[in-house]
Design brief:
single chain, alpha+beta, 39% helix, 190 residues, two-stranded parallel ribbon, 7 helices, globular, 4-stranded antiparallel beta sheet
Length: 190
């Protein structure tokens, strides 16, 4: 199957998350997001070591953590997301992010990007879309839509299980069982 077969459904589910206050449009640059993630990780590590996060990793600006657009109104987010879909925003200027958990020790819970603007035709869906869903947003939803009972991934996806389930929980969708395993590589054989 192709995830792109579900682009319309994924878009509608993104709107549902915005309406529930669980997604927001963000204009942070990639560098700002990286700084935000590093700071959140330092704070989580300090907390896990029993240290004061405010002393070990003080927040330099309220715009960094949890992010300057995180508390934008639902109406404004719907407006920006529609402008993104219509191609009225520059590529890379906005993303749709999930309002997750900056207190988590799992960096994959630091407000993942769900959608990006990209003015490139899709190899399967063609040129009908200029916003594209990210893998972490798409994976669990498509598994649920396709009634997958067991989603089996390699070990590097283990830290992605938490956001996988968070997205499905937020959308009140069926949650497949997820298992991670080592890869088996066979060499010198047919």
């Amino acid at each position: 199957t192709y995830s792109s077969d579900n682009f319309q459904t994924l878009y509608e589910l993104a709107i549902k998350l915005i309406e529930k206050g669980l997604a927001y449009c963000c204009d942070m640059t990639k560098a700002e997001m990286e700084l935000q993630r590093e700071l959140a990780m330092k704070r989580a590590n300090a907390k896990n070591r029993g240290q004061d996060p405010d002393e070990e990793a003080p927040i330099p600006s309220p715009d960094i953590l949890p992010g300057r657009n995180r508390n934008t109104s639902v109406e404004r987010n719907l407006e920006i997301f529609e402008r993104m879909k219509l191609g009225l925003c520059d590529e890379g200027s906005w993303t749709l992010r999930l309002k997750m958990d900056f207190e988590s020790s799992n960096p994959n819970m630091y407000d993942l990007v769900a959608y990006r603007i990209k003015y490139t035709p899709h190899p399967h869906a063609g040129s009908g879309w200029c916003i594209y869903p990210a893998y972490d947003f798409t994976h669990g939803i498509c598994d649920s839509l396709e009634d997958i009972d067991y989603s089996i991934c390699t070990l590097e996806f283990e830290t992605r299980r938490e956001p996988y389930y968070w997205i499905l929980w937020a959308l009140d969708m069926f949650r497949p069982n997820v298992y991670e395993m080592s890869r088996l590589n066979l060499q010198y054989t047919v």
